[in-house]
């Protein structure tokens, strides 16, 4: 057994040293790798979330706050009722789930752990103010209801029922110095330098 373990380690090391692993984001993992990673992710969440005590999540103000946080920080990748997932986010690997359409049967404590900590090696970050558990629980409260909302109910919760006009990123990105386009893309690419037009035109 020890010899087999050593041989497996050396084979994996040789594979990595030879650069044979496909790390391109233009295509997904091999199916068996994807299933294994998904299996590990589900069980890791359940284990780490098992001791989390869930507060009451039925406060309307709490749900409204969670909707606002979700719209500001999550809807770009996960979509929302009446708001499709951004085309760029759809090409992320793994692609973020469209939560208004489909969501795993996570329990509230699972959702809390996910929102708070995020996932390594994906585009899912941890909560930026990790000590603000009240904000995280507000998002969880909203997530437990997101699939019951239509577009109007979502707008009422997240935006006070404000009607948002559709706007094309390609139209905004007519020049590299356009502050609106730069601001939108800076969420992912940073704002320390001017962004090239090739990036702005995709926003």
What does the average pLDDT come to?
A: 84
Can you identify the CATH class of the largest domain? Answer: Mainly Alpha
Helix share, percent: 40-55%
Strand content bin: under 5%
What is the total tally of β strands? 0
Low-confidence stretches: 198-203
What does this structure look like?
It is a single chain. This protein has helices at residues 2-17, 31-49, 60-73, 75-78, 87-90, 108-117, 133-143, 151-159, 169-172, 179-189, 197-200. It is mostly helical and 203 residues long. The protein folds into 2 domains: 32-159, Cytochrome Bc1 Complex, Chain D, domain 2, CATH 1.10.760; 169-200, no CATH class. The protein is globular, with a radius of gyration of 20 Å.
Summary?
The chain is an all-alpha fold and 203 residues long. 52% of the residues lie in helices and 0% in strands.
Fold topology:
Layout: H1 2-17, H2 31-49, H3 60-73, H4 75-78, H5 87-90, H6 108-117, H7 133-143, H8 151-159, H9 169-172, H10 179-189, H11 197-200
Which descriptors would you attach to this protein?
203 residues; mainly alpha; Cytochrome Bc1 Complex, Chain D, domain 2; 2 domains; 52% helix
């Amino acid at each position: 057994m020890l010899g087999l373990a050593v041989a497996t380690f050396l084979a994996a090391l040789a594979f990595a040293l030879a650069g044979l692993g496909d790390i391109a984001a233009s295509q997904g993992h091999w199916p068996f790798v994807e299933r294994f990673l998904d299996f590990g992710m589900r069980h890791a969440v359940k284990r780490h979330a098992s001791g989390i005590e869930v507060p009451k999540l039925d406060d309307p103000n709490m749900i409204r706050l969670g909707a606002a946080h979700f719209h500001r920080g999550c809807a770009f990748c996960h979509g929302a009722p009446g708001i499709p997932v951004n085309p760029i986010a759809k090409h992320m690997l793994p692609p973020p789930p469209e939560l208004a359409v489909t969501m795993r049967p996570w329990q509230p404590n699972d959702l809390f752990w996910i929102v708070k900590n995020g996932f390594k090696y994906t585009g899912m970050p941890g909560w930026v103010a990790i000590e603000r558990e009240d904000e995280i629980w507000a998002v969880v409260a909203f997530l437990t209801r997101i699939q019951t909302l239509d577009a109007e109910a979502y707008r009422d919760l997240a935006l006070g029922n404000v009607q948002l006009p559709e706007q094309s990123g390609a139209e905004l990105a007519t020049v590299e110095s356009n502050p609106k386009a730069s601001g939108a893309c800076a969420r992912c690419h940073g704002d320390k330098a001017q962004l090239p037009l090739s990036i702005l035109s995709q926003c």
